[in-house]
């Protein structure tokens, strides 16, 4: 006579199998298991406020990696505190030429003018990202402090990003949005019925135009942050 199967054992086995299946879907489905990545260190002059672990690393608008670590280190030779930023970049992202992580590929790209710099990712939140491009006319400044990772040169943050963020009229924008919301609330909760539907439609159109203008302003500032500082040099 066969023994009665233990339901608890079966339940545990089923749960374990589901966990393995889910983990397999996540790992293999994302493709991260087969991606080859390399880590590099970068140093930026001044503050990196707004840059956080997980921030994107871009090359001409294309995502090539992420920020993995931001730390503080004392440079005895320079007598100052340095902020090494560790980034992880996917290998082989640039096809048909030298690429990150390949044999002497980093040196070749640096010789071609590869430089990294901080850029505003989102003006409303103040988040930053790292952007790479070729600047052959800019000298490659290497610190050589951390030997654990190969170093990629950076450009000075100019104009100063914190100055750009401070120049944004956040209070004025918030005040305008509040006034718009109060106007809508007054119309919605008013006991007086508008004389015609045209009045209501006109008000809504003006509100939509104001919101659209704010959206266009934000997009323009993200693409041209230096426009906020024009004219300051003569003050």
Give a structural overview.
By secondary structure, the chain is of the alpha+beta class. It has 2 domains: 34-160, no CATH class; 168-230. It is built from 5 helices and 8 strands, in the order H-E-E-E-E-E-E-H-E-E-H-H-H. It has helices at residues 7-30, 105-112, 161-167, 170-189, 197-223; strands at residues 37-43, 56-59, 62-70, 73-75, 80-82, 84-90, 114-122, 127-134. The strands form 2 sheets. A 6-stranded mixed beta sheet has the order 1-6-3-2-8-7. It has a two-stranded antiparallel sheet with strand order 4-5. The protein is extended. The model is unreliable at 231-235 (pLDDT under 50).
Radius of gyration: 27 Å
Strand order of the largest sheet: 1-6-3-2-8-7
Helix segment count?
5
- Describe the sheet with the most strands: 6 strands, mixed
- Helicity level: 25-40%
- Low-confidence residue ranges: 231-235
State the end-to-end CA separation. 97 Å
């Amino acid at each position: 006579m066969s023994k009665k199967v233990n339901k608890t054992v079966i339940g545990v086995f089923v749960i374990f199998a589901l966990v393995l299946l889910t983990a397999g879907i996540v790992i293999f489905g994302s493709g991260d298991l087969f991606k080859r990545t390399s880590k590099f260190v970068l140093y930026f002059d001044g503050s990196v406020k707004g840059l956080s672990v997980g921030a994107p690393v871009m090359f001409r608008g294309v995502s090539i990696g992420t920020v993995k670590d931001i730390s503080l280190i004392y440079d005895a030779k320079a007598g100052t505190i340095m902020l090494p930023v560790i980034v992880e970049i996917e290998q082989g992202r640039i096809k048909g030429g030298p690429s990150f992580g390949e044999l002497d590929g980093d040196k070749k790209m640096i010789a071609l003018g590869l430089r990294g710099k901080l850029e505003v990712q989102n003006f409303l939140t103040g988040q930053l990202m790292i952007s790479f491009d070729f600047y052959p006319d800019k000298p490659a400044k290497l610190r050589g402090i951390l030997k654990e990772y190969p170093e990629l040169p950076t450009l000075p943050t100019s104009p100063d990003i914190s100055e750009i963020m401070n120049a944004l009229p956040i209070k004025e924008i918030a005040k305008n949005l509040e006034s718009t919301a109060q106007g809508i609330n007054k119309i919605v909760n008013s006991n007086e019925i508008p004389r015609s539907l045209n009045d209501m439609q006109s008000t809504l159109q003006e509100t939509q135009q104001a919101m659209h203008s704010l959206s266009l302003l934000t997009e323009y500032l993200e693409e041209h942050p230096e426009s906020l500082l024009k004219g300051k040099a003569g003050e």
